[in-house]
Design a protein that fits this description.
By secondary structure, this protein is mostly helical. It is built from four helices and no strands.
């Protein structure tokens, strides 16, 4: 959506709630109001808001995994066509699988760096 905001929403928070939101906005590298707006709308749409860095890293890892898959597919296609596999092909495939393992490990690290997201969590005033 583009244009001018026409409505303002205010709410009262306990200090611990305010500081929790403030820290979360800082981690997301954004201001508090846009963070709260985006989080509330994501909740309504049942979406997860990911930090920008995470999304960028995830896209990069996804692209690299696609390239690795294409290279492995080419090796497999050549092996099927020629009905043989060279030592070089096997070595190259092994290297690609090692790189793939590293990419999956990086993805796991990225996922583990995200705060846990409770399901069906009821927010209360305590």
């Amino acid at each position: 959506m583009h244009g001018t905001y026409t409505h303002r929403v205010t709410c009262n928070l306990y200090p611990v709630q305010y500081y929790t939101l403030e820290r979360a906005a800082e981690r997301a590298k954004t201001r508090l109001a846009p963070f709260v707006r985006d989080a509330a709308l994501a909740y309504i749409d049942q979406k997860i808001v990911l930090p920008a860095d995470f999304e960028k890293n995830l896209l990069s890892i996804h692209q690299e995994i696609q390239q690795l898959g294409a290279s492995l597919s080419q090796i497999a296609q050549r092996a099927n066509t020629l009905q043989r596999v060279t030592h070089g092909d096997l070595k190259h495939a092994g290297q690609l699988v090692q790189v793939l393992d590293r990419q999956v490990a990086m993805l796991r690290n990225e996922m583990n760096s995200l705060p846990s997201l409770p399901h069906d969590h009821q927010i209360n005033g305590s």
